[in-house]
């Protein structure tokens, strides 16, 4: 079920005995737990137990779930790192434990709220246990949001929190953190503290208080390369070196960004939509949108040709062929000379 719908049900007191929270969006994951515990805490004193599934057995978890609390009316059991439903489970489970888990799902203890938390985004729906979870356990989707969803979420939060922030400042913030919800909320909380002084949050405020991520700087660098903006690309690269970034590490990020641009272009030409591309490549939807937009400036053939030059330069840098920094400028010349 969609995250917001689950939260609305919890606020209305419609709390389920079993939840399966899946996805890598840390802020949504923690907000769900906080909202659930706050709602339960309003009605009763809580007996809370937390486990990491890669450290305990399913039998132990179910023993705890079936047991009634001596201290309160209800127990809350939170099982982290529950990657059992993925294609790459982190722990094994016996046939007997699966049978017992399926039986518990059919008839959960009414005095226990059991929450399984998977940190990966994908579920292997072919598994029998996955099908059982889908039918009988409340699903909570906390996978990364798309660009427009992140923007709407933040706009709603700003309005409800009565934060004085200009529209331009919000756009600048989202671009600086790459539309990553968890990081956006972290930076927004810092900005909100500043706003308590009575000053509105402007573009200048965001630029002064919110650092750009290395990934966003590299993306700007790649954009400048593709647009053949020599001065801009050179300035960004030199600034990144001044910030003590290693040339080999920077080059690896440039290679990675070009690879994503090529992959998204190929998938788009084969009829894949942005959301499907993000799922195929296991990257944030915002990165897909940026890659698709950037890839329009060069043909697939030109991108592939330059990518081969990047790979060759990567090997040369790692084998100590010439000064590490010089390879970037040689690649820039090569790109300019391309038709």
Automatic annotation (TrEMBL):
Domain DNA polymerase III delta subunit-like C-terminal intervals: 215-335
Residues annotated as domain DNA polymerase III delta N-terminal: 19-141
Top-level taxon: Bacteria
Catalysed reaction, written as an equation: DNA(n) + a 2'-deoxyribonucleoside 5'-triphosphate = DNA(n+1) + diphosphate
Signal peptide (from-to): none
Enzyme Commission number(s) from the entry: 2.7.7.7
Alphabetic keyword roster: DNA replication, DNA-directed DNA polymerase, Nucleotidyltransferase, Transferase
Coiled-coil positions: none
A GO MF label: DNA-directed DNA polymerase activity
Entry similarity comment: Belongs to the DNA polymerase HolA subunit family.
Listed name of the protein: DNA polymerase III subunit delta
Encoding gene per record: holA
């Amino acid at each position: 079920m969609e995250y917001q719908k689950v939260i609305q049900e919890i606020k209305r007191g419609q709390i389920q005995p079993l939840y399966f929270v899946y996805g890598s969006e840390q802020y949504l994951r923690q907000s769900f737990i906080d909202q659930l515990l706050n709602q339960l805490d309003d009605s009763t004193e809580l007996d809370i137990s937390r486990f990491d599934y890669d450290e305990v057995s399913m039998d132990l978890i179910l023993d705890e779930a079936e047991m009634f609390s001596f201290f309160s009316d209800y127990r809350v059991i939170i099982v982290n790192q529950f990657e059992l439903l993925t294609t790459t489970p982190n722990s094994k489970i016996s046939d007997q434990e699966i049978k017992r888990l399926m039986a518990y799902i059919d008839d959960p203890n009414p005095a226990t709220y059991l929450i399984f938390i998977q940190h990966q985004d994908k579920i292997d729906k072919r598994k029998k246990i996955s099908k059982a979870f889908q039918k009988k356990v409340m699903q909570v989707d906390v996978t990364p949001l798309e660009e427009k969803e992140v923007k709407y979420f933040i706009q709603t939060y700003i309005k409800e929190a009565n934060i004085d922030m200009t529209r331009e400042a919000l756009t600048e913030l989202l671009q600086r953190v790459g539309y990553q919800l968890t990081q956006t909320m972290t930076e927004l909380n810092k900005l909100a503290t500043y706003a308590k002084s009575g000053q509105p949050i402007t573009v200048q405020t965001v630029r002064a208080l919110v650092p750009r991520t290395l990934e966003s700087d590299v993306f700007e660098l790649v954009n400048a390369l593709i647009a053949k903006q020599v001065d801009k690309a050179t300035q960004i690269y030199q600034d990144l070196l001044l910030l003590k970034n290693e040339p080999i590490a920077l080059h690896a990020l440039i290679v990675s960004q070009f690879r994503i641009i090529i992959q998204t272009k190929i998938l788009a030409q084969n009829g894949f939509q942005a959301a499907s591309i993000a799922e195929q490549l296991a990257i944030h939807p915002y990165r897909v949108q940026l890659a698709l937009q950037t890839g329009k400036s060069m043909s697939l053939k030109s991108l592939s040709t330059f990518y081969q030059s990047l790979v060759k330069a990567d090997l040369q840098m790692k084998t100590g062929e010439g000064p590490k920094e010089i390879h970037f400028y040689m690649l820039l010349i090569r790109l300019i000379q391309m038709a």
